[in-house]
Design brief:
It is a single chain. This protein is an alpha+beta fold. It has eight helices and 19 strands. It has a 15-stranded antiparallel beta sheet that branches. It is globular, with a radius of gyration of 22 Å. The relative contact order is 0.17.
């Protein structure tokens, strides 16, 4: 189709080790996963010549220490049947339904696709930058495909840091509120090219057969070279068949990405599954200028790839689609590796880079803890949580016992503050207003990487 451009080749199919932000030519069509070659060097000098990273890891692991624990012996219904319509953050779930990560580590997966931020920063035109930012926003939900395990709820005051010199960023997050659960995060480019920050309050509800996560909180990306700021909110995520049948995930809702300098806006519609699954995983949208003139059209799947083209070519394509069978006769792209059967219904196959719990290679490394790192990390870092560590090592009894102990310790600390009429004091973030939207937000106060952890709470 003339005028068509694949501006994000495989939402999850570029080389994450490419810190320059350029797409990998070797990965022209990868579906559903991220290719990370962990055998590569980190791209800064030769092995042995690099100074150690702040968090102590130079070479990242490629698998978890123990096999995934089976969930077949547990009944979700026995737990959830009394909870229809309730908020799931207040429901205690057996550890068998967890994955060995904290939610703070889960949101760090935004940064798996940081090369798109670097790419946006290098683009000379605002329209091109918005295209890359839109791709980055969609990529943030791509890792959730078939991730049906529940991350551990962060304890109040829990933190997580990650420095990846090879990918050009460092990241810090903190659990700033327990009821409601709010996670705040801040990331910056190591070459002073971007700031990425926000606060997330996922409101979870159980609706009989599904669990729905409604996003709350604003996400902000600042491209410093261009003096531009973009804000958006994630789509709604829904896990189906939590009682019986094969679990599957869909994302739906409208995401609006606003460029606060130019007034440009990208509107992305994450389609609900629809009748017979014909809309499964589909994303459609457009980029418009401040006068609401459409500049660029976007379509694709959040599990695979996004395509973009100019509005005139897109309208021609849609007319052709209406005249023909859209599932069989219309050529949606030029990729030779088209799946057999219906294009829309085809489910991405798991690639070899997807690990147990459906972790990508990037995710597998998030809870890595090497000898000596305890001396560098904040004592509140997720890597030091004994329940998550126990689960990762395959000791489910220990993990369950530690989870109960930590939760009771948190409750006792809350009762003690109530007796003393003391309020919880956050350490690295403070409550404020988003500088671009004016909405309530949690803002990074700075100082974490100076590593003065003397005032950190004892939460483990």
């Amino acid at each position: 189709m003339n005028g068509e451009e694949e501006f994000f080749d495989a939402v999850t199919g570029f080389d994450s080790d490419n810190s320059s932000g350029e797409f990998s030519e070797a990965n022209q069509r990868v579906t559903g996963v991220i290719h990370v070659d962990t055998s590569k060097s980190n791209g800064i000098g030769k092995v042995g010549e690099r100074p150690p990273q702040e968090n102590g890891i130079q070479k990242h692991r490629t698998s978890l220490p123990a096999p995934m624990f089976t969930r077949s012996d547990f009944s979700v219904w026995s737990i959830l049947k009394k909870c229809i319509g309730l908020e799931l953050s207040k429901i205690t779930m057996p550890i068998a339904f967890n994955e060995p990560l904290s939610f703070l580590q889960r949101i760090t997966e935004y940064m798996e696709h940081v090369c798109l931020i670097h790419k946006a920063s290098c683009q000379p035109q605002a329209l091109e930058r918005m295209q890359s930012v839109a791709a980055f926003a969609v990529s943030a939900v791509a890792s959730q495909w078939e991730r049906t395990g529940k991350p551990f709820n962060p304890l109040l005051g829990e933190t997580y840091e990650l420095t990846r010199e090879d990918l050009g960023f460092r990241f810090i997050s903190e659990q700033v509120s327990h009821h409601p659960p709010i996670s705040a995060f801040y990331s910056e480019g190591l070459h002073q090219d971007f700031l990425f920050h926000g606060s997330i309050y996922p409101k979870l509800k159980f609706w009989g057969k599904s669990v729905e996560a409604e996003p709350r909180g604003t996400i902000t990306l600042e491209l410093l070279k261009h003096n531009e700021a973009y804000t958006w909110t994630n789509p709604t995520c829904c896990v189906h068949n939590v009682i019986i049948g094969k679990l599957w995930i869909e994302q739906y809702g409208t995401v609006e990405i606003v460029n606060h300098r130019t007034g440009d806006k990208c509107v992305l519609h994450f389609k609900p599954c629809g009748l017979f699954g014909k809309e499964l995983h589909k994303v459609e949208g457009y980029i418009q200028d401040k006068n609401k003139k459409k500049l660029f059209m976007i379509y694709g799947k959040w599990t695979e790839c996004l395509w973009g083209l100019d509005p005139a070519a897109y309208e021609s394509f849609k007319k052709q689609e209406r005249r023909t069978d859209p599932l069989r006769k219309t050529k949606l792209d030029d990729c030779p590796e088209k799946a057999d059967g219906d294009v829309v219904d085809a489910v991405p196959e798991a690639q070899e880079t997807v690990q147990m719990y459906n972790f990508t290679s990037f995710t597998v490394s998030l809870n890595e803890l090497e000898t000596g790192m305890e001396k560098i990390l904040a004592p509140t870092d997720c890597r030091l949580r004994p329940d998550i560590r126990g689960m990762e090592n395959g000791n489910m009894d220990l993990a369950s016992q530690e989870k109960e102990r930590l939760e009771e310790k948190q409750r006792e600390a809350r009762r003690e503050r109530a007796r003393e009429e003391a309020e919880w004091q956050t350490r690295w973030f403070h409550r404020g207003s988003n500088p671009y939207t004016g909405t309530p937000d949690w803002l990074y106060v700075g100082g974490y990487f100076e590593r003065d952890f003397s005032g950190c709470p004892d939460i483990y």
